[in-house]
Amino acid sequence: MVLVERYLGGVTPRRLAKLALDTHAAAAQVAAHGVSVTYLGSAALPGDETCFCLFVADSVSAVEQVNRRLLVPSVRTAGALIVHGS
Fold first, then answer.
1. How does pLDDT run across 7-52, given as a tens digit for each residue?
2. 3-class secondary-structure state, position 17
3. In a domain, 85, yes or no
4. N or C: at which end does the chain have fewer Cβ atoms within 10 angstroms?
């Protein structure tokens, strides 16, 4: 898993939904070139103006390719461990 951290001033449900659509499209474009990357979703903390986007990818660089296609800058891209509750 790879997690991307972004700072988004004035994040709203509508803006987060737009980011999700754009990120999904960018990941699909990168994947179409044979790069293993899938966008799973995003979570925002409006009070902190922070957003986290989660990907399944073979590498951080695959997710960085996705980020270069977006107009929203990323602050940090890093490998992550995720545990799902049961």
1. 988 888 998 999 999 999 999 999 999 999 999 999 999 889 899 9
2. helix
3. no
4. C
